[in-house]
Amino acid sequence: MLTPRQGQILVRLARQQIERHLGLAPSRPVTDDDLDQPALQQERGVFVTLHKRKALRGCIGSLSGVESIVAGVRRHALNAAFHDGRFQPVTAAELDALEVEVSVLTAPRPLAYENADQLLRLLKPEIDGVILEGPGGAGATFLPQVWQQLPAPEQFLGHLCRKAGMPEGAWGSGRLVISTYQVQSFAESRSGGQAT
């Protein structure tokens, strides 16, 4: 488990990466000493999410720990800000309106289920992130934070199927591979990037 202070460092690091890419001085610089902590060097899945006035503005990450948390935050901050194909790249004029969130993931675990009813019973809304994999390599994930917009499990899974390019009701077939994970999420406030 990361501490709130470590989460604050990660959020500041993500913003610093974006600011530096735009040629700006970091507003709340992170030092090498801040980052030189064993907990931040763990290899974990990481997502960086950007919101602008509560609307999604970018979200990129990795589900498995292929690099340290620090390296993942650095890479995914830039990808979320400048390489999320759903959005135009972030501009310097937008920075003050952006809220940065960093999610550090547990290792995904396959969810064994027999049928749609059992799947619905096994999912833990607002706790589980869900990875859905279908035939032919189709797949998608929603972080646990998405439950806030889609609180009904049927709705959550239906939108996740659509995100994966499958029919909305495909989750009810019992033929999809479902895995779950949990996150520690750290977000900054609009008033200067304090992690919560």
Summarize this, please?
The protein has 196 residues and is α+β, with helices and mostly antiparallel strands.
Short descriptors:
single chain, globular, 28% helix, 196 residues, 2 domains, 5 helices, 8 strands, 4-stranded antiparallel beta sheet, alpha+beta, disordered C terminus, Glycoprotein, Type 4 Pilin, Dna Ligase, domain 1
Can you describe this structure?
By secondary structure, the chain is α+β, with helices and mostly antiparallel strands. The protein has 2 domains: 108 residues, 2-Layer Sandwich (Glycoprotein, Type 4 Pilin); 73 residues, Hypothetical protein ph0010, domain 2 (Dna Ligase, domain 1), CATH 3.30.1490.150. The protein is 28% helix and 22% strand. It is built from 5 helices and 8 strands. A hairpin with a 5-residue loop joins β5 and β6. α1 crosses α3. The two termini are 15 Å apart.
CATH architecture of the largest domain: 2-Layer Sandwich
Q: Give the end-to-end Cα distance, rounded to a whole number of Å.
A: 15 Å
Number of distinct beta strands: 8
What is the general shape?
A: globular
Rounded to an integer in angstroms, the radius of gyration calculated over CA atoms is: 17 Å
**Biggest sheet descriptor:** 4 strands, antiparallel
CATH superfamily descriptor of the largest domain:
Hypothetical protein ph0010, domain 1
Average pLDDT confidence is: 93
Structural class: alpha+beta
Helix count from the secondary structure assignment? 5
Percent range for β-strand residues: 15-25%
Strand arrangement, major sheet? 2-1-3-8
Q: SSE order in H/E notation?
A: HHEEHEEHEEHEE
CATH class of the largest domain: Alpha Beta
Helix % is 25-40%
Uncertain ranges: 190-196
State the domain count.
Answer: 2
